[in-house]
Model the fold of this input.
Amino acid sequence: MCRWAAYIGAPIFLDEIVSRPGHSLIHQSHCATQCHTAINADGFGIAWYGERAEPGLYRDVLPAWSDPNLKSLTAQVRSGLFLAHVRASTGTATSRNNCHPFTHGPWSFMHNGQIGGFEMFRRDADMMIPEELYPHRKGATDSEAIFLVALAEGLDGDPRGALERASARFIALSKAKGVGAYLRMTAALSDGKRLYAVRYASDGNAPSLYYRWSETRGGMAVVSEPLEDGEGDWTEVPEYSFCTIEREAVRVEDFMPCKLALAA
Amino acid sequence: MCRWAAYIGAPIFLDEIVSRPGHSLIHQSHCATQCHTAINADGFGIAWYGERAEPGLYRDVLPAWSDPNLKSLTAQVRSGLFLAHVRASTGTATSRNNCHPFTHGPWSFMHNGQIGGFEMFRRDADMMIPEELYPHRKGATDSEAIFLVALAEGLDGDPRGALERASARFIALSKAKGVGAYLRMTAALSDGKRLYAVRYASDGNAPSLYYRWSETRGGMAVVSEPLEDGEGDWTEVPEYSFCTIEREAVRVEDFMPCKLALAA
Amino acid sequence: MCRWAAYIGAPIFLDEIVSRPGHSLIHQSHCATQCHTAINADGFGIAWYGERAEPGLYRDVLPAWSDPNLKSLTAQVRSGLFLAHVRASTGTATSRNNCHPFTHGPWSFMHNGQIGGFEMFRRDADMMIPEELYPHRKGATDSEAIFLVALAEGLDGDPRGALERASARFIALSKAKGVGAYLRMTAALSDGKRLYAVRYASDGNAPSLYYRWSETRGGMAVVSEPLEDGEGDWTEVPEYSFCTIEREAVRVEDFMPCKLALAA
Amino acid sequence: MCRWAAYIGAPIFLDEIVSRPGHSLIHQSHCATQCHTAINADGFGIAWYGERAEPGLYRDVLPAWSDPNLKSLTAQVRSGLFLAHVRASTGTATSRNNCHPFTHGPWSFMHNGQIGGFEMFRRDADMMIPEELYPHRKGATDSEAIFLVALAEGLDGDPRGALERASARFIALSKAKGVGAYLRMTAALSDGKRLYAVRYASDGNAPSLYYRWSETRGGMAVVSEPLEDGEGDWTEVPEYSFCTIEREAVRVEDFMPCKLALAA
Done:
C-alpha cells in the first residue's frame, strides 16, 4: 500500500523526517498502522531539491530499514523540499524503476494507492503516454503511468487540473476494463518550487494523509501517518482535495476526477 | 553487445558451458573477443529445462563473474536444454527484468544485437504487443519486445516464420523512425523440445555465432564465441539463417525479414 | 529472529516446503506467528543436496517473498535433502555472506536464535576459528561463527558432540563478556547423508521447532512453524535435544552445552 | 586493482571528479589504462564531508557506470573534501562491506593495491585489530584491516606514523606467512580537515598516483589516473611518500614501513 512523507520549508537534514521521529517513514516501513500493509518493504526512494532545477533521486529495492546508504544520505543531505517513499508492491516487480518517487525534469511524484485492475489494461495505460514522454516510462507501475500522463496533461501550467484530468482518464479505463475501486490515491508532487498533495478515492476509501507545520523547523511536513504518536496537532487532509503548499500556507481545492470521468 | 551460449543434448551440468571452458560465457563477460564490448557486465541470466514444461529462470544484475549464486547453481543443476546470457546494455537500465533470457510458458528467448534507434519508437514497439501478452512486458528492452511480438506472430506453430515476421515489423519501424542498422540479431530460443538459433543483420554486420557437436558430451553447443581457443571445429552459422537443432541435427533455413519488410 | 525449514526424504521440488504450503517458509518471511519478529525480511537462503557431495547454495538479501529467482529455482529443483532459511537480523548487516545457510565442503548449517551480546566479543569468537577454517569466515554473524567452531570441534565424526562443545564455548564467552540469554538456538545441519536438528536455550526460551513425517511425500519436514494451520500432527522437538533424522527415523539425544560450559 | 580519486578545496559537485571528466573515475571503472585491470566493476563508493564531523558514505556492488543513484548523487551533492573509489576485487566477495571507502568517526580511507597472500593470514590480520575497533571490522578485505590497524596505531594524532606502523605490521605478516609483493599501496585518507595520500610498494611496483591543483575550481585532485588525457600538468606522487594536502599546499614526507618491518 506504501507510505510516504514530504517536506517544504527551511532546509533540514532529510533524516529529520525519514528516520529520526518515533514513527518515522522508516518505522512505517515495518510498522505502519493506518493501512492494509504494516510492512512496506518492497523498496524505497527519496527525491530532494538542492541547487539544481532537477531533484536528486535515490531509490533502491531493499527494505528501507536495512539500507546503510539511506541512513548516511539522510544524515548528510539538507533540503528545503523533498519527497520520501516506502513501497508495498501492488503487483509489479521489485526493481528500482518501480520505486517512487519518479522524476522528470524539475518534477517529482510519488503515490500511495492503486488503479483498480491496472494489470488488465496496462497496455491502454501505456498508450496514454505520448511519444515524447515514453522514453521516461521505465517501469510497469500504475504510479509512473499516472505521473507521465499528468505531465502530458500539463502539469507545468496547472498541476491540479492536469492531475485531475489524468486521474479521470485512468478512472475511465478502470471502469471499462478493470475492477473497482477504480482509483485510490494520496500523492505528493513538486516542481522544486511548491509542494502539492492530493487525497482521493473513487470509492470513499482514500489512504490516510496529514500535514503539520513545525515552528521549530520552519517547515511543513505532509505524511501518510503522523511522525510521532501523541502529537495531536496533525491536520487530516480532506478526501477529494488537492493542496498547494508553500511553507506555512496551504491552499485546498476540490479534486474530482470522477466528475470528469463521468462527463467524458 | 551481449554474448550467449545455448546447449541441447544429453543432460550436463550448466557449468560445462557457462563457466568451465577456457573461454566460457563467464570469461566472455569480461574478455569477449568478437564484439564491440569486451565487457558484458550489465547482468546475466540462465533459462534451463528440467521436468516441467516451463523453464527455470535465474537472472541478476551483477557481473556474472562475481556471483556466487550463479557459480553454485551451474555446478548443481543438470539440464539437456538451456540458454545462458551475459548482457552489455544498449541503453536500457540494468535491472533483472531487462536481463535475458525472457520466458513465457514453455518458451525462452535471448538476443544479442539491437533494433536501431529503439528508444525513439519504443512506444510503437510496445503497441505491437497484443493485450493478452502485455502483462509479460516487464522491462524496456528491444529484446523482450521482439520476443513478445514473435509470440504474437505464432512462435508456437512456426518459430521461423513468427520470428521473421516479428523482425520485419521492427525493421519497418526502425526504417520509419529510428536509425540504421535497423536490426542486428543473433538469438536463441526454445520451447523445451528443440533449440532454435538465428543470425541476421539488415546491414550485413551480424554478431558472431557458432555451433559444435560434442561427441563426449552428446550435445550441441551454440555460442557467440567458441568456448575454447584453438578448438578449430566450430561451424560458423551463416548470416540470414534460422537453425533448428535437435541434438546432432541442424536444419538451416533462410531468414529474410528485410524482404518481408520491403513487401509490407 | 529467523525462521527455517528442512527436509529429508524422497526427492521433492523445493517449493513443496518453501512456498506452496499455506504457512510456508515464504509466508513466514512476512507473517511468522511463533516468534518475536513477524517479519523475516533481511535475506534468505537455500542449501540443497543433489548429485555432488557439496550442496548447492542460493542466498540473497531481498525479502524472500519478492524474489522471482527463488520462485523459479524452488519450482524447478528437486532434492531429497535441503535447508531453507529466512532471516531477521539480530544486528549484523544485510549482505549475502550474512545469510544462512552456511556451507563448507559437504556440510550445511542454519540457525535461528542468537548468542547474547555477540557484538561485544566477536573478536574472541573469531579467534575460536582455527586458521585453516578462517578463509571461510566471510561474514560477521554469530551463526557462521558457531558453524565454523563446530566444524573445528569435529562435526565430521560426531555432530552432536561437536556442536555441543562449540555451543559451550560460546556460552562461556557470553557469560564472561556478553549479556544473557547466553545462547538460544534451533539449528539444522547436514552432511548430505543425514539431517540433524537441535533445540536449545540457556534460559529456557528456545525458539519453536517441530517435525512431521509425510507419508504422501515420503519425507520428513523439520520446521520453525508448522507449514499448514490446522495440521495437528506436528511433533514439537523438546528443548535441550539433538535429533538425528534419517527419513522416518528420528533419534533424540540430550544436548546440554550449559553443563559443559559449567564444567570448563 | 582498483582506481580512486580524491579532492580537497572549494566545494564542487562530486561529479566534477567522479563522472564529468573525459577519463573520470567512472570512465576508469571500465577503461583504466595504468593498471592490471582495465575493468574495476566490483563495486564503488564515495565518502564526502559536509556539515557533520562524520562523512557521508555511499557504497554499492554494481559497476559504477550503471548506477543511476550514483549519477544523481554526484550531480546534487557539493563537497570540499571527498574520496571516491571503484573496485576490482583481489579475492574477497563483492559486497557493500567490502567496498571502499571505509569510515570510522571522522575518518575515511580507501586503498588501491594489496597485501601479498592476505587470505593466508587473515586471521592474524584480524587479530591485530583491538577489541574496541572490532565491531567496525565488517568485511574481509585487507584494506579495511589496514585502516582499522592504522586507527589503532594512532591515526588521530599522527596519520603518517600510524599508517607507516600499520603497514609495517602487515609487511611483516606477509613476509612470514604470505607471498610477495608484501604490500602495494596507494591510499587516500581524511579526518575531514586535511587530505592525506600515500604511495608505496615493498617491491618497487607501486600503483600509479598523481595530483593537480585546479585554479578554476580552487581545489586539489589526487587520482590514480589523470582525469583528462592530454592534460600535462599532473604531478606524479613519488613512491615511498606520504602527502599531507591542505588545498594548494602539498607536504611530502618519507613513507618507509619496510624499514620499520626490518627493525621489528
